[in-house]
Design brief:
Layout (H helix, E strand, L loop, with lengths): L13 E5 L4 E2 L3 E2 L3 E4 L2 E8 L3 E4 L4 E13 L2 E13 L4 E8 L1 E4 L4 E8 L18 E2 L6 E2 L4
Parallel strand pairs: 1-4, 2-5, 3-5, 4-6, 5-7, 6-7, 7-8, 8-9, 8-10, 9-11
Antiparallel strand pairs: 12-13
């Protein structure tokens, strides 16, 4: 009998649980969501689903997921669509997300990089061409000879 999956689980269905008395070190990949109650000491956690770091969890790893919810302690780098730092959660590291939620009573120290279709420097005026002269009176670039 073959042990082959015919379909992937729903991204919010928890497939993997690292228990409260467990310690894990290494790379973890899952098609479904991951719940961390114990300790993770290094490596990569990767899923197209969600990662839930509960109140008693201690995690030091890189995470790549759809949504990461943190109620415990986390240190590392996260790349996700959404990160939720819940009340009592503590986070040290770099977060690259489209959406970020910070509850009252949570602690965040690090770098937050919001990703999306927004210009990197929306308030800067475009630079004139090298051959353009800027008129002081008008404030607008003009072409040579005009």
């Amino acid at each position: 009998m073959a042990f082959r999956r015919q379909s992937r689980p729903a991204p919010d269905q928890i497939e993997v649980v690292i228990g409260q008395r467990a310690t894990f070190n290494g790379n973890l990949r899952s098609d479904g969501s991951i719940r961390l109650d114990g300790t993770v000491e290094g490596g990569l956690i990767e899923t197209p689903g969600n990662v839930l770091i509960t109140e008693r969890a201690r995690v030091m790893a890189e995470i790549q997921a759809k949504t990461v919810s943190i109620a415990g302690a986390y240190k590392g780098a996260i790349t996700a669509e959404r990160v939720e730092l819940l009340e009592g959660g503590r986070l040290w590291g770099t977060i690259k997300v489209s959406s970020f939620l910070l509850d009252d009573g949570a602690h965040f120290q690090g770098e937050l990089i919001m990703q999306g279709a927004v210009d990197d420097e929306p308030l800067l005026m475009p630079r004139p061409d090298a051959d353009e002269k800027i008129s002081v009176e008008e404030g607008q670039p003009r072409k040579p000879g005009s």
